[in-house]
Design goal:
heterodimer; A: 88 residues; mainly alpha; Non-ribosomal Peptide Synthetase Peptidyl Carrier Protein, Chain A; 52% helix; B: 304 residues; alpha/beta; seven-stranded mixed β-sheet; 50% helix; 19% strand; cell membrane (chain B)
Chain lengths: 88, 304
């Protein structure tokens, strides 16, 4: 398993756990949108994901980040962003 | 939720008309116009009238008549008139009494921020006027699209509120922005009596049915989840209309923190929503003509 795939499945598990989803982590399409269509998350989910990421990876997602649209566009983008900014 | 959109569009039209009348003819003329405007609202919206009658019957504990309906619709129109002034930051001639400021100040001083749970009761412009008049920390208001649009539209024409930022609900980063405001010790206002128009994850609505005036009604879970997840103290906040340009704004302690235990998370959310509904019920009984939910609150009108 490449490291990109490894972090993607790790983040998928984090999302499933943080949001108490019924979906299994491996069922999340890495390219599908997380919000609206696709997984259908809302702003409360976004908050819970941001908190879980800060606990696990030691950095904060910020609402004033211009790249948020892109970061939250898919599991793949979110995982790549985490890989780049993680403190642990 | 087309009723909501219609209502807001109607409100915006009335708001513009009043804005025009006030600038040309002054407050008193606008006040006299409230009577025909109220009559028009009352006669032209049978569905809202029916919903209001159901609410008033329960809040008053007796059958509601035309006089009660007129009073409710009139109060609503009066807050719309005042809105023209309050959104513009013009407080001359207004008397806004505030209760519970010490309790709010204590929470502000603690530096952990505070969540203010509101309702569609009275005027949130009166609340906002209090914030603008010297709140030492920043204030954000989470609002559904329609309200956010009206406020934005109005701010474009008038000098904007100096202190309060509106965050439209429905954007993915809305709650994150609320969290950051609390982190900075600010206040986050959110209306907790109207179920969200948008379905949440996997089509499920984030609503919970809890008793309100003797019957279960749908209340949003979101505000209580936000409070639980962030661990901030929670107060109730509302401003009721008590007479021409007279308001009473109240801040009441609600919870030091809402604990969402992992294993009984859903129960904890339902308990918080039920506690909120019970408190709002008391306010609705004390100020029944300030209740501005003109929709089928108990989802009973279409049942045959």
């Amino acid at each position: 398993m490449s490291s990109a795939l490894a972090i993607e499945s790790e983040v998928a598990s984090l999302i499933v756990e943080a949001l108490h989803l019924e979906t299994r982590a491996e069922e999340i399409d890495p390219d599908a949108p997380l919000f609206g269509e696709g997984l259908g998350l809302d702003s409360i989910d976004a908050l819970e994901i941001a908190l879980a990421i800060s606990r696990r990876y030691g950095f904060q997602l910020r609402s004033d980040d211009e790249r948020n649209g892109q970061i939250f566009a898919s599991l793949r983008n979110l995982a790549a962003h985490i890989e780049k900014h993680r403190q642990r | 939720m087309s009723w909501q959109r219609q209502r807001e569009r109607g409100s915006l039209g009335a708001l513009r008309l009043m804005g025009w009348v006030i600038t040309r003819l002054g407050y008193r003329a606008a006040w006299l116009l409230l009577y025909p405007i109220t009559g028009y609202f009352l006669l032209s919206s049978p569905r809202q009238r029916r919903a209001a009658r159901l609410f008033l019957g329960r809040a008053l504990g007796r059958e509601a008549g035309w006089r009660d309906l007129f009073r409710l619709f009139f109060t609503f129109s009066a807050t719309l008139l005042d809105r023209v002034f309050l959104l513009d930051g013009q407080r001359r001639g207004f008397r806004i009494e505030v209760q519970g400021m010490e309790a709010l100040d204590a929470r502000i001083a603690a530096g952990r921020g505070c969540i203010l749970l509101g309702a569609h009761i009275g005027s949130f412009d009166a609340l906002r006027a209090v914030a603008d008049a010297g709140c030492p920390v920043e204030v954000v208001a989470l609002m559904h699209g329609d309200h956010a649009a009206i406020s934005r539209d109005f701010f474009a024409q008038h000098a904007a509120s100096r202190h309060t930022t509106v965050i439209p609900l429905g954007q993915p980063d809305a709650m994150l922005r609320a969290k950051e405001c609390l982190d900075r010790g600010g206040l986050v206002g959110i209306l907790a009596d109207r179920a969200p128009a948008m379905p949440g994850r996997t089509g499920g609505m984030r609503v919970v049915h809890v008793p309100f005036l003797g019957r279960p009604a749908a209340f949003p879970e979101g505000p209580h989840i936000l409070a639980g997840v962030l661990g901030a103290p929670v107060m109730l906040a509302y401003g009721v209309w008590t007479g021409p340009r007279r308001y009473q704004v109240r801040f009441e302690p609600f919870a030091e923190r809402i604990v969402l235990d992992r294993r009984r998370r859903q129960e904890a959310i339902a308990e918080a929503a039920a506690a909120y509904a019970l408190r709002i019920e008391a306010v609705a009984r004390a100020y029944p003509y300030n209740w501005f939910n003109f929709h089928d609150f108990w989802e009973e009108m279409d049942a045959s």
